[in-house]
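New to this. Explain these tokens.
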Amino acid sequence: MATIVRTITSYYHYINDEIADPRTNNFPLVSSPLPILLIMYLYHQFVRKWGPSFMANRQPYNLKSLIIVYNIVQIFLSGYLTVEVCTYAF
């Protein structure tokens, strides 16, 4: 078990210290894995506990028109990106 932990630790330090770009050390969420783990924990708590308790006595939100607009925008953006990629690729 100690060998596994040592291997994981050495691999972690290799990735984050030896081959990492030093210019990214001051970027948010890059210097340590703890902020990412905290965000994942808070998301899990929201999905499993806080969200359902918040919506327990409420009607579902009507998002149909918003989702239609979002889908139309996504179609146009996907088409634009496809045209740009094909233009530069060929």
Remarks:
- Residues 62-90 form one domain.
- Helices lie at 2-18, 34-54, 64-89.
- The mean pLDDT is 93.
- The CA atoms of residues 65 and 71 lie 10 Å apart.
